[in-house]
Specification:
4 strands, two-stranded antiparallel sheet, two-stranded antiparallel ribbon, 14 helices, mainly alpha, globular
């Protein structure tokens, strides 16, 4: 970590040897993930682990194999291991903990993909793995609100666990259309990479570069029409790793951006998850019960195709990520971007209804291919 008094938050800090290593880490993770994804699909086929259409929630037309998350995991681990030794000379404890936790959460996801694990058990295991990470790898010890540093003390680990579980499930729940979660995660991990470079946090640079490359290597197989799904193994691993990067990096800064920047990076999936949680509670339903009220569902219900919905959400997520980076230097302009992004999302949710005069019927919706196991979660 670069000392506080020598840290540069300007763009000239990008053009260093670390920048070259970042690009190489992305390329290595990309290549490994790209090569491993077809192998993961074959393994899933041999195990009979498919997401099968049911014409109700799983509306893709043919069974699609899971296990894409394994390819992402392998791509990440290979790149992160190599560049930990290249850039650090060893594997720090928090990186080792992240590796162990990442493999553990991926295994939990695989079990869920294969055997449809109860939601409460899955949540409990997420909490256990997050607590392990917070205790042995590092927790959110303080954060800054309105230029005042808030020391969490005994609440450090509980707050960290809550944050990590939120991010894990946010990525999991946005995984509802071909290429949606993988594309949004690639944008978010790239934003984490840029902020880590600006802050000079080498551990987070390595992790975010490796994750970005691994997700990008998987994306060509997962884009519409997908030939493989990442499953819970992939979405939970990605969410866990991004949560670790934010905890080990951004939350360690004693500045206002320590809480605002990660909140902006993950704004879209976080808001979608929190709104879904409370919406279900207010309706008297279990917060874990599936419904069709997520952002991507609303876009499709109002006339957008799955491809259009994914592109629109990519754009909205990209604006949030750009705003998160600019907030470190240009706070007012960043907030203007955020406001414009919310307006953009509201327009997207309603303009098709305005121009077409009606929402799609249930029959029209059922004819739209919305692949994924979590499409209605």
């Amino acid at each position: 970590m670069i000392p506080e008094d020598k840290r540069k938050f300007m763009w000239d800090s990008f053009f260093t040897a670390e920048t070259l290593f970042c690009m190489l880490a992305i390329l290595l993770a990309f290549a490994v993930s790209l090569a491993a994804t077809p192998l993961a699909g074959r393994l899933a086929a041999k195990c009979g682990c498919f997401d099968r259409p049911d014409s109700v929630r799983k509306l893709h037309k043919t069974p699609v194999p899971y296990f894409g998350g394994l390819a992402i995991l392998v791509g990440f681990l290979v790149s992160a291991l190599v560049f930990s030794f290249v850039m650090l000379g060893a594997i720090p404890q928090n990186v080792a903990v992240m590796f162990i936790g990442g493999m553990s959460i991926c295994f939990v996801g695989l079990l869920d993909d294969m055997y449809d694990m109860p939601a409460t058990l899955k949540l409990l295991l997420q909490i256990v793995i997050s607590a392990f990470t917070a205790y042995f790898g590092g927790a959110i010890e303080y954060t800054t609100i309105f230029d005042r540093t808030l020391v969490l003390g005994v609440f450090s680990i509980p707050v960290t666990v809550l944050w990590m579980v939120l991010i894990i499930n946010a990525v999991n729940l946005i995984d509802g259309l071909d290429g949606l979660a993988s594309g949004v995660s690639a944008l978010e991990s790239f934003a984490l990479l840029i902020t880590s470079v600006i802050m000079g946090n080498t551990v987070c640079i390595i992790a975010s570069a490796a994750l970005c490359g691994a997700v990008l290597g998987f994306l060509p197989y997962n884009a519409n029409r997908a030939t493989i799904f990442m499953g819970d193994a992939g979405s939970m691993f990605i969410g866990y790793t991004m949560a670790c990067i934010s905890v080990f990096g951004l939350f360690k800064a004693q500045a206002l951006f320590s809480i605002v920047v990660p909140a902006l990076i993950f704004a879209l999936p976080l808001l979608d998850t929190v709104v879904a949680f409370f919406r279900r509670i207010f309706k008297g339903q279990s917060p874990f019960k599936a419904d069709r009220s997520h952002l991507h569902h609303k876009l499709i219900d109002n006339g957008f195709t799955p491809k259009q919905s994914v592109i629109a959400i990519y754009c909205a997520s990209a604006v949030f990520c750009v705003a998160s980076i600019l907030f470190m230097k240009y706070k007012l302009f960043s907030m203007v971007l955020v406001l414009a992004d919310f307006v953009f999302l509201e327009v997207l949710k309603h303009w098709k209804l305005f121009f077409n005069g009606k929402k799609k019927t249930s029959e029209e919706i059922s004819s739209v291919e919305t692949p994924k196991k979590q499409a209605d979660q």
